[in-house]
Amino acid sequence: MPRPIDILDDIRRLQPGLKKSEARVAALVLADPRKVLEQNVTSLAHGADVSEATVVRFCRSVGCAGFPDFKLRLAECQARGGTPYVSQDVAPGDGVGTLARKIFSSSAAALTAAAAALDETALGAAIALLAGAPRVLCVGAGASGALAQDAAHKLLRFGADAQACPDPMLAHMLLLNLGERGVLLAISNTGRSGVVNDLAMAARAQGTAVVAITAPGSPLARIASVAIASQPVEDTEMYTPMASRLVHLALIDVLSTGVALRLGDPAVRHLARIKAAINASRSPDAPSESPLPQPSSDH
C-alpha cells in the first residue's frame, strides 16, 4: 500500500510531542512549505536556528528516512493541495500572475515527485513491449482519452502502427485485430474506469499484453502486464486531474522516446519523412505587403 502522502498533516499532528528544537523546524516548514522545498539542509537549519543534525532528527521524527525523503514527501504534498476543480491554493482574489505561479508551482512539484518515484524496470519492460509490437491500441476514458490520442500521435511519429479509439465498441473490435503480438496501452488516472478495465481484461484474455499508466495498486495496475505507476496528486473525488495529467503526458514522452531509441535509425528516418511531409503541406509564408504609396506634396 502507498504511504500517506500529506506530510504536513503528519507534522501538525506530531508537533506537540516534538523536542523544542525539532518543533522550531516544524513551525518553519508549516509556515512556508514552498520555501522549504527550495532549501538545503544547511539553510533550513540556519532559518530555524538549529543544527543540521536536528533537521535530520526532525525528518525522522515525522516518519521520513532522512532529509531527501522529507523533501520528496513535501513535494508530493504540495502537488496534491488545491482548490476544488481549479488548482493548488488558488483563491478567488488571486491576480493573474499569482494564479499562474501557483499552477506552475503545483505542476512542477507533481513532476518532481513523479520523477523521483519512477520504476525503471517497469519503464524498460513497457518500452520493450511497445517497440516490439506490430500494432498498438491506445485507450483512455474522459480526460485520459485525450492522453491516449497524444500517445498514439507520438508513437506514429516513430513508425509504430498506433491508433487511439474513444469508442468502446470499436475499441473492442480493434482489440481483436491486435492479436497476441500487439499491445494495448491503457491510461487511467484512478485505474477504476470500467470501460478501460474491461478492454484491459479482454486483452489479457486473448493473450495481448497490456501496458498501463495508472495509479499503483489500482484494479488496472493489477490487470496490466506492465504497470507504470503514477500516484494521483489530486483527490479524484473532488479535483480535476490537472497536475496528474501533466505527469501522464511526461510518462508518455518517456515511453515514446524510449521506443524511438530502441528502434534506432529506422525511427529517425521515419520521423524525418513525416516532418518533410508536414512541411510540404504547409502554406507558404505570405508575401510581405508593399509599403503604401506616400502622398505627393506640392510646393
Major beta sheet, specifics?
Answer: 5 strands, parallel
Low-confidence stretches: 82-88
CATH superfamily of the largest domain: Glucose-6-phosphate isomerase like protein, domain 1
Tell me, what is the CATH class of the largest domain?
Answer: Alpha Beta
Tell me the strand order in the biggest sheet. Answer: 2-1-3-4-5
CA radius of gyration is: 25 Å
Give the strand content: 5-15%
Helix content: 55-70%
| Whole-number tally of structural domains | 2
Count of helical regions: 14
Explain the overall architecture.
The chain is an alpha/beta fold and 299 residues long. The protein has 2 domains: 7-115, Arc Repressor Mutant, subunit A (Orthogonal Bundle); 120-279, Rossmann fold. Helices cover 58% and strands 8% of the residues. It has helices at 7-14, 20-31, 33-37, 41-48, 52-61, 67-80, 96-116, 120-132, 143-157, 168-178, 194-205, 219-223, 242-263, 265-281, and strands at 136-140, 162-164, 183-188, 209-214, 226-229. The chain has a 5-stranded parallel sheet, sandwiched between helices. Helix 2 (20-31) crosses helix 4 (41-48) and helix 10 packs parallel to helix 11 (194-205). The longest helix is centred in the C-terminal third of the chain and has 22 residues, at 242-263.
